[in-house]
Design brief:
The protein is mainly beta. Strands 4, 19, 20, 21, 22, 23, 24, 27, 28, 29 and 30 form an 11-stranded mixed β-sheet that branches. A 5-stranded antiparallel β-sheet has the order 1-18-17-16-15. Strands 2-14-13-12-11 form a 5-stranded antiparallel β-sheet, with no helix packed on it. Strand 9 and strand 10 (166-172) form a beta hairpin. Helix 6 packs antiparallel against helix 7 (754-762). The termini are far apart.
């Protein structure tokens, strides 16, 4: 959708810049009509192109230098030259709307209620001099991790502390790939950058495309930090996409099985829109720096009207095991009459890395779900003409990009309750522009993957005032609060940065407040650009802090007021954070912990271990020199259940006897941690099982301690083995093991018999220390 010039690389060509200064609007469009392809699909015997997965290996990969050791670099360019990164429409032009238009879900009043987000801090991000030197727009986006904030713009990146101190940068993006000598990624700096944080692995993922000045060949450049520190080294990759199809506007999403991406394809001699490209990158390999693959589907083969879609990005709790990634777009009958009534279309992308030919996208490329949405009118703003955004202090109007979803498409899993998808885009509301947003939820009793979901709520935020609101980004915190960040402007207001939000119990479809995060003090003055178009965005980014699951971080652009109006549109970016007071990180605490053992052919039986009344484990361990099991080592199995899925770094075991050397192994499935203890003495013991750094994926982190008190033969659980235990066991002799008597089956053979009586008698006199 967005087409870049050959000088977009941040190492600029005066000859190309001169062409921009001298050309007319028509000549500019001609410059951007280059060709570009995708990994090719096969044709059948009738010559029909088949829709199928195409697997491509990374062209090159390597390990970068430490980012903090790379020199600070700013682009150089010829004085008096300026560059417009041209936007390419993904839908044919349509007649302008008759204003005002009626939006059936427009929110016309913005409450100043308690859901108005309170800004925590705001600091300067990169500016035009840091990024591309003389280009518009900046494409501002960022990602927050536990200790850092990483920002990318056209065509540089910087790393900040959470208080705004720049720790690395600005650095031209291509320098990160310089180790890939001779690669496209090392040789170009073409922009459309995206950075995301992979909270499942505690890594940052940076990307930009390589388009060779728009003439191809075309590639995607991806870097994955080798550890949690974004100022360190990165595993860097160059993925060839095509020699003829331009893959524009790439957007990434993090998922457990892959990094997913969408593009808008432009092909043919006229470089017209040709459909959507969808990709999956081999995340597991990229996390360890090994050669990796990508799987590609060309949606243009199915319907060239599909486009403007995004992949879903996981925030917080992981999805149910095996869930596909969800891709979505929202279409208007005005923009896409061949697709029918206004609707949201959702595809399921399942990638199979064991056999990539088994990978699927949608129903043979058609959407899995088509959900009707409230009618909306696309904002058609082309070369600053049409339904654009006015600004104070300049005759030039600002772009809207009303033909696509805005970054990001957020996925949230509220374990045991519901799954949500959050989307937003810019629409015409009355005679202005507003932010249309949606929350999609799974059908009750099903997952998003197993049944058609529904639109839980939808609304257009456009309170009746003078402001235009557009270029939004939406997110949800761990408590279910929603926030939307966006740009604002009007004939009486400079372009500024704002956010609105809602609490889970607010009326559906209502944002309960609006806060200005930063007030711009100047207009985007594009007098020196040819043509003088108000390129804005092309996207912004609202992300959630993984340290608490509550704090929102937002980056957007603005302009300052100069004593003399600067016609070169030197943009700035601003990074802000805010949170809702109702959200707080929840410290993970188990809801149950049990010692589990199998009694012969009988079902497993559990003994509860959690305080305040932890039971005593009176049954033998498995393995070793006691039970005839194949595993040697005197083992106990402990199951710890949490209310939500968790992850942890380690499990250790401590004992009241310093001579003990028990060890532990563990596995995690969603909210259940299975722990196997090894080399546990048969003597009476008080053990403590230590689950280290249990994390709920939403910022809550704690060590969890589970007691395991061992007294073999204590069937009455009174901390001593005596005649009462022998009598109780004798009374059950001859009975098969069931729930009411499993404590007397201390030998675990599925029946209470003389072997149990003898074992208890031999332990008589032992007590729990």
């Amino acid at each position: 959708m967005k087409k870049k010039s050959s000088s977009e690389s941040g190492i600029f060509s005066p000859r190309i810049f001169a062409a921009f200064v001298l050309c007319s609007a028509g000549a500019l469009l001609a410059m951007f009509s280059f060709a570009a392809p995708t990994p090719s699909n096969e044709t059948d015997a009738q010559g029909t192109v088949q829709f199928k997965p195409v697997t491509v290996a990374s062209t090159s990969n390597g390990v970068s230098a430490n980012l903090r050791d790379l020199p600070v670099t700013r682009p150089s360019f010829a004085p008096g030259t300026f560059e417009v990164h041209e936007v390419r429409p993904i839908h044919p032009p349509h007649a302008p709307p008759q204003l005002p238009v009626h939006d059936p879900v427009q929110q016309t009043v913005a409450s100043l209620g308690p859901a108005a987000p309170t800004p925590l801090q705001t600091f300067e991000g990169m500016n035009q001099a840091d990024g591309c030197g003389n280009c518009i727009p900046p494409d501002p986006n960022g990602a927050v991790g536990p200790n850092h904030y990483v920002e990318m713009v056209n065509s540089s990146y910087s790393v900040y502390s959470k208080t705004g101190t720049r720790l690395a940068g600005p650095i031209q993006i291509q320098q990160l790939f310089s180790v890939l000598t001779g690669s496209r990624c090392a040789g170009t700096n073409d922009g459309d950058p995206v950075v995301v944080y992979d909270h499942l692995a505690d890594r940052f993922v940076l990307s930009q495309f390589s388009v060779n000045g728009g003439s191809g060949p075309f590639a995607q450049c991806i870097a994955v930090s080798t550890g949690s520190d974004p100022t360190g080294a990165y595993y860097v990759y160059d993925f060839d996409q095509s020699t003829t199809v331009f893959h524009d506007y790439p957007k990434l999403g993090v998922w457990p099985d892959a990094y997913y991406m969408t593009t808008n394809e432009f092909a043919g001699t006229g470089q017209t829109f040709a459909g959507a490209g969808v990709f999956a990158f081999e995340r597991d390999k990229m996390l360890i720096g090994q050669p990796a693959r990508m799987v590609f589907f060309d949606e243009g083969v199915v319907n060239s009207g599909f486009g403007g879609m995004l992949p879903s990005h996981l925030d917080g709790t992981p999805p149910p095991a095996g869930s596909p990634n969800y891709f979505a777009e929202v279409d208007s009958q005005i923009n896409s009459p061949m697709l029918g009534a206004d609707a949201m279309r959702i595809w399921k992308f399942h990638v199979d890395w064991s056999n990539t030919n088994n990978s699927t996208f949608g129903l043979s490329g058609q959407p899995d779900y088509t959900l009707p949405v409230a009618m909306w009118t696309p904002a058609q703003c082309t070369l600053a003409q049409g339904t654009c955004v006015p600004q104070m202090g300049s005759p030039y109007q600002l772009d809207v990009l009303g033909d696509r979803l805005m970054f990001r498409l957020v996925y949230r899993n509220f374990f045991g309750n519901h799954e949500s998808l959050l989307l937003n885009h810019s629409v015409v509301a009355d005679a202005r522009i507003g932010v249309r947003w949606y929350e999609v939820r799974n059908a009750p009793g099903n997952t998003l993957a197993t049944a058609t979901p529904s639109i839980y709520q939808q609304s257009t935020f456009a309170p009746i005032d003078a402001l235009y609101r557009w270029m939004g980004s939406i997110a949800m915190d761990a408590a279910g609060n929603i926030a939307v960040g966006y740009s604002t402007s009007s004939p009486a207001n400079f372009p500024s940065i704002a956010a609105a939000g809602r609490l889970p119990n607010d009326p559906l479809g209502q944002l309960s407040g609006e806060t200005q995060l930063f007030a711009g003090t100047g207009a985007e003055n594009v007098a020196l650009f040819v043509p003088p178009v108000g390129r804005w965005g092309d996207y912004t980014d609202l992300t959630i802090d993984p340290a608490d699951g509550c704090t929102f971080w937002y980056v957007n652009e603005y302009f300052t007021d100069f004593p003399v109006v600067d016609p070169g549109a030197p943009w700035q970016t601003r990074i802000s954070s805010f949170k809702f007071p109702t959200c707080a990180a929840v410290i993970p605490a188990p809801v149950r912990a049990v010692s589990r053992k199998v009694h012969g052919a009988a079902s497993p039986f559990d003994i509860d271990l959690l305080p305040p009344n932890p039971a005593i484990e009176m049954r033998r361990h498995t393995g070793g020199d006691i039970a005839p099991a194949p595993n040697a080592g005197r083992d106990h199995e402990v199951i710890v259940t949490f209310p939500v899925p968790v992850r942890l770094t380690n499990v250790t075991v401590s004992s009241n006897n310093m001579l003990d050397t028990p060890t532990a192994t563990f596995s995690v499935t969603d909210n259940v941690v299975t722990i196997n203890l090894h080399n546990v003495s048969i003597a009476p013991r008080r053990l403590t099982i230590n689950l280290i750094k249990v994390n709920d994926f939403n910022g809550g982190t704690a060590d969890v301690h589970v007691p395991l008190n061992l007294l073999f033969g204590d069937t009455t659980q009174d901390a001593v083995v005596n005649a009462a235990d022998i009598t109780q066991t004798r009374r059950q002799s001859g009975n098969p093991t069931v729930l009411s008597n499993f404590r007397q089956d201390v030998t675990l053979d599925g029946v209470v018999n003389t072997a149990d009586i003898t074992a208890v008698r031999r332990q008589s006199g032992n007590a729990l220390p």
